[in-house]
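A further point concerns the way the authors explain their paired sequence and structure data. Each protein is reduced to its one-letter sequence and a matching series of backbone shape codes. An entry of this sort, consisting of the sequence and the corresponding backbone structure tokens, reads as follows:
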Amino acid sequence: MKQKVKLGVVCLTRTTYEYKTAQAMYTKTIEDLKKLPDVDYTFIEECVIEIQDAEDAAVKLLAANVDGVVIISGTFHLGHLALIFAKYIKKPFLLWAYNELPYDGGKIRLNAVCGLNLNASNLYKTGKDDYSCTIGDSIDEKWVDALRVKVALQNARVGLVGYRAHGFFNVGVDDMDIYQKTGILIDHYEIADMFSQPVTDVEIEEEEKEVRSLFICKEVNDTQVKKVAQLCVSATKFVEKNGLTAVAVRCWPEFAANYGISPCAAMSILQSKGIILSCEGDVEGALSMLAGAALGAETPFLADLSQVDLQEDFALMWHCGVAPANLWDGKSERTLDTYFAGGKGVTAGFVMKEGHVNLIRFDTARGKTRMFLAAGESIEMKKQLCGTYTKVKFEQNINDLLNTVTETGVAHHLAMLYGEYRDVLRLAAKMMNYEVIE
């Protein structure tokens, strides 16, 4: 399911063109838009022609607290109208013009595209940049999906458990900068808050059955399996109790020392259930994953661009053992392992499934927030090492990709999404005034 959004929709016309025809077209558009899932609408059902009409409509949309406004140019229209909506509503706009109707021997019938051009020019010259344009008989669904990303971020409640990992300066964030750019207030919690929620023996026993059904547990002992199960229950209660949308976890070095095991395996299970969890206190990594979830991407995975092979032109998207368990390739052994932290690093271990993937990273540096994007194919490989990973052949040469990442200082955690979302994410970056790095 995608992030739900609230749209205001209005159609602008002028009586010197075929405004009654445009009204009929708009009425059909309203019915078509209602078929788009996960969208709530406030429609201005009568076309807006005069300045006072626009004032009244803008007040209505403002009261509805819409997330974005679709301004349809049904015909050419007064230049005042879109500017009035921009005066009242500080949200992204989609400027949409209907296709021109066939000529019938008289003057141009709609001149709608010229109306769109007028609106775009006026808005641009006022300094408004968060608008996009489309021409046709149907809405630009990519714009709607881009808005879902923005709304998911501004409505998110993000928790930081502990702090960023020791020495990972490059994933640290400025809380007030995050708030200014997204509206998110980051709530800080102690590590113990995540693992010390009250749980019952029955809850642990039920969860332990699931852990053992998912993973081969011969490399870990019964106490460690029980610890994984207990943490799954406690962490779920922690997220629910605090109403958190995403959580960044300082998963080492203190977690294993204080709880007895690392949280990696539990995070793999919880992420497969749709809970957004990022490793090593990486808040912007969590936001990158949240963006993917807003688009309906299947359980995003935060990974390192690892084991780069310049000769064979691929890299492993690897992490120590936290990938969502449902992304398993169905072929490799899906195991629990204890390969670090003196035997306390209980992690998931499997190869991830094949398929087309996108990489995304929100990353702030030198006062700017950037969105890094890349794409490739997750290809079949045998299980060769511990952790969760997949071999990815990227669209661009791996050496060029690595140079882009290092020359622009992009952090070493990237959210991996199965599917193709780059067009939508570029639009989302424009809405949020983020620079795109590709």
